Sequence to fold (556 residues):
Amino acid sequence: MGNRVRRVRTLELAMAPLRVWIAVAVGGCALIALAYLPPRGAAPRGPRFATYSPEPTAARRRAQAVAKEWRETDASLRLLEDRQHVKWDSSRVGPAIIFRGPTLPPTAVRTVEAVADSMWRALGLGETKVRAALVIALERAPGSAPGPIPDQNGVAFLTPDSTDRTTCMAFLPANHFWTAVLLGHPPRHFEPDWLARWFQSGLGPCAYYAAYGTPSRSVRSWLAARNWDVALYLGTHGIAGERFLSVNLLGDPRYSWYWDGIYSLSPSTVACLAGRLDGCRSAVLYGADDDARIAVPEIVRLEQGWWRKQHLLPGERFLGDVARDVGRDRFQSFWTSSLPVDTALAAALRQPVGEWTKQWERRFIQPIRLGAAAPLGATLLALLLAAVAVSAVALAASRRQVR
Amino acid sequence: MISAAKCAVGGLMLITIGLPAAGSAQNRWARQVHDELQRALNVVHAHGGDRPLLDKEGTLNQEESASFTITLREGVSYSIFGVCDEDCSRLRLVLATLANSELALDRTSEGFPVLQFTPRVTAEYRIRVAMEECRLNPCWYAAGVIPSSGAKP
Fold:
């Protein structure tokens, strides 16, 4: 009798914790599902920076590649032609302006030239050794000109070379908005200084050529290797306003970063965002070790979404800020130095490149955290589950105690 | 011989001579070197020299060079000048044969090199101008060749 009772008691003790364990497991799964599964009817959230389009066929890809090549060649030829026919107006100080597309009324041309001259003076420029010319392509209506539609999107620059050491050409396509502004039909909310800002950002490397002349071979090779991404903007403000930087196009730097945007950047760029000195140094000196061949003619093209491919954030103003920080003479020495770029830049900055860059980047971006770090919500959930598990085990253990 | 000629021409450079007006399309650096070269050539010409044989102007970036050929006559003494703009601190002037054998060079007088040369044979020679130091690229330069005074026909 005594043995029978003991056997039943053992079975009861074994069954009770099993039910508890099943309940705990189901409850845990429910909690995880509650935390991670979207509610019924919610739209699936894709990555913020990716756009999805049907995969093109091989023939279409080939056609697109040929069309791209044709547009680039056509744009290069047009810039070279324009360089031969630039008319320099000795009564003006600013860049020469060449319009393509619809003809502008003379009053509109004079207004544009006056704005360009003011912008030029605001950059501290007057008569310069290397002169700049802005080629503004106004938007054409489809079918208004025979042949394929030329490139009306990509910003491009034709830098001075041995065939013309004193002219830098900037190609600035005007979209629908800017075409309306230039034709004298600005929208109601248009502010007067927007046009000057647009010209200033459109000058790109030409502003550096005008201000500091042609760079030395080592500096030019470094800039060519990285498509001039650290010398795209010479102004004191952002590319499109008081504080507007390319970083703003990736997200608001005051808040948390879009990680899918960060994953598209190179490791050294991300390391610099995290405030690592080595990362900042590598991000700045990317391309400095290569002896990049400088093409003649050298045409610098900015693709759409260039800010996503920068090696340094916000790289477009890096050398402009270096110039303001170290002063004209020291920057000029760096710009024309035949020393390796890292040595010349460190000499101009009077401190290691990585250190200066880290401090500079902090002016615009809060450092991000790298390495293994669980989000707060996931941490709390894990702790909760752990507490439940421990409690369940403790409960089961207390029931199993034989008194 | 080179340094004597350099001093003489350098001193003469201080004398102001009526100069032709530079083209209005030129910028101030181009005008500067044009005026300086014309001044030097005029000074030598006023002191018994012949008409300039060569008068070249252009732009060079630092570490770049340009060369041109000229026929020099046996027994004639020639002055060869180089001038460069205010941002240039060292211009090198080299006279060589067409086979690039250097015959004379001046790299000590910074922005205003001068060569004095009397060929032993009438032949084509190469004059090379090298921009050794330019603070703001490109730098404008000008080079001129003029038979000096006392030249033998």
